[in-house]
Amino acid sequence: MFRQASRPLLLGAALTAALKAALVAIATAAGAAEPGHYGYGRPATPAEIAGWNIDVRGDDGAGLPPGSGSVAKGTEVFAEQCAACHGTFGEGEGRFPKLAGGAGSLKDDRPELTVGSYWPFAPTLWDYINRAMPMQAPRSLSADDVYALTAYILNLNDIVPGEFVADRDSLPKVRMPNRDSFTWTDPRPDTMAKPCMSACANPADVRISSTAEGRDLTPRTTGPLDTMQPK
Amino acid sequence: MRPPLERGMPATPKPANLPDPRLARRSFLGFGAALTGSLALGATPSSAQPQPASPPADAPWSQTLGPGVVDRPYGRPADTESGVIRRNVPWLTAGTESSISFSPLQDLHGIITPNGLFFERYHAGRPDVDPDQHRLMIHGLVERPLLLTMKDIVRFPSVSRIHFIECPANGGMEWRAAQLNSLQFNHGMISCAEWTGVRLSTLLEEVGVKKEAAWAMVEGADGAHMNRSLPLNKCLDDCLVVYAQNGEALRPEQGYPLRLVVPGWEGNVSIKWLRRIKLGEKPWYSREETSKYTDLMPDGTSRGFTWLIDAKSVITFPCPEKPLAGPGLYEIRGLAWTGNGKVRRVDVSMDGGVNWQSARLHEPVLSKALTKFTLPWRWDGTPALLESRVIDETGHVQPTITQLRKQRGSNSVYHNNSIQTWQVKPDGSVFDVQTG
Q1: Within a domain: residue B86?
Q2: Contact status of A40 with chain B (Cβ, < 8 Å)
């Protein structure tokens, strides 16, 4: 019984395989291959994926790990890990980024873009600290410390109260002040100049409105050269 | 990276000991003269008696035996070209590890940037990656999560393509006014190379894209773990995962051993030291695509996901670093590019945009690559305002800074593709100016 029944099955399998091979050949000719066509590399194991799978999605916090951190704890971690560059209250030392302030300044002549005034999503802050900070030792902080720092920086910006505890549930619910000010589709081209070839303007109207001449912003053109040349 | 290139910059001129740019230019010229002098000294630069090296004399190097082959197993430019280097603007960023350097466009010829002169952009310094340990992981909404070694990646069918990469902050310091008297500093965040690697679509077909997937997150192995979101259709269109640049392995500065090249889009998405590609249903809204690389408009709103590099061109000779030597016949030279595809036409004006004539485009004119243009010009020694204007194959015309400001104000930092005006003075010196 079994043998008899298996024949048509085998035949069917062979036909299916032949059909598959033909389809793969067609797909390859068209530039699309079946998954595993080349067979190079090997499957990534769950453990390997877990080690690198650090991304957290900004708008809904997908990927945030277990753990939590309070504003109070964040104050301590920040003083130790961050304040040297970002200032004790996120004011920024030298040209290092200012993390707090600038609320309502986005329409100003000199807007101040900080976590509080500009960033649209709170989980992005967790993700960025976790993947890139502190600059000298990225990925050295625990999830709890990253939650605490996130809570502290949000509190510096008056976005969460002093008793706030950041975790995977609370962080996605934090509403950033600038959240709705972004458009995520590109409206360009937003200029439509015509390529006029002659008498495109009144020569008298062509005036120099600004010049780099006399400003002291240009690094010395010979800058690095000076130190590279033999004396 | 936003704050550095920033809004503070025009307001507060920095170190008081920077010399007047005019003096800088003169000292550059003076340096050239010094070089000529040292050449004349020949093999013994300390000699007090310069040996004549030009006709009628036979030069010292014509009377000696030179070093043999493999004296320099990996060659290098002539010693007298040591001024052709990447430079940075120290006041722009807090340090050099999260910063940018500029290609010396004033000293380059043609459309290919030599590997040692390709502009650099780091967010956590330059990692030195061990290629044997490096892995590319592809996972998320795929049929078959995959881990690839460099040896695996090199086995895939290879392609070579010439594409530019431009930082969208190129020219970002000029939104408010002309500030930097330099071609290198105003336009040097662009370079162009022949890239060799595997099409990203090949890798994605190999893992099998699940039908819910619409976006890819691409991530680097540097300390910043730099990551960006890309729409899946762009990934499948023309993105490349490359291991070679101008025929040799990528330079560490450019992502050795593996980087992404996203043709025609802002350089930030061409992730260097590429280690991971994850497919998902939605974008990730990472720090690099929310707090940075978004464009603030005058009404307080911001544009995100503005990836495209618009049509842009610049005259590379003459320029502030390469003034004119006096009246006579010159070849105006320049570069044009567009993320939309090919350059269709470049026009040049000598009078600040009143009258234009079309320049000659030099082959090859490639999609999403630098294109060279030239135009002969007999300069009579009178003041001139030189401009170039590109029109790309979609018909997009490079705008003036005035037209851009009308749409975007002057706080959007990125994507300044405006026409550059070079003021030529009667003494042949050249200055960065804006008109309006």
Answers
A1: no
A2: yes
Domain hosting B185: range is: 121-300
Residue A22: per-residue pLDDT: 52
With contacts defined as CB-CB under 8 Å, which chain B residues touch A57? 280, 282, 284-285
How far is it, in rounded angstroms, from Cα A46 to Cα A145? 25
Give the residue from B291, B292, B363, B361 showing the smallest Cα distance to B333. B361
The domain containing residue A136 runs over which residues? 68-180
> Does residue A171 lie within any of the structural domains?
yes
Look up the CATH number of the domain holding residue A85: 1.10.760.10
Whether the pLDDT of residue A221 is over 60: the answer is no
- What tens digit of pLDDT does each residue of A23-40 get? 444 444 445 678 999 999
Instruction: Tell me the per-residue pLDDT of A40-86, one tens digit each, with 9 for 90 and over.
Output: 999 999 999 999 999 999 999 999 999 999 999 999 999 999 999 99
Nearest CA in chain A to B87: A224
d(CA B330, CA B430): 14
- Report residue B228 as tokens: 């960006």
The answer to whether residue A195 sits within a structural domain is no
What residue type is B285 in one-letter code?
Y
Tens of pLDDT, residue by residue over B153-178, are 999 999 999 999 999 999 999 999 99
Q: Where among B269, B300, B331 does a domain terminate?
A: B300
Asked if the C-beta of B39 comes within 8 angstroms of chain A's C-beta atoms, the answer is no
**In this structure, are residues B166 and B190 in contact, taking their beta carbons and an 8 Å threshold?**
yes
List the single residue in B with minimal CA-CA distance to A221.
B24
CB–CB of A213 and B180 under 8 A?
no
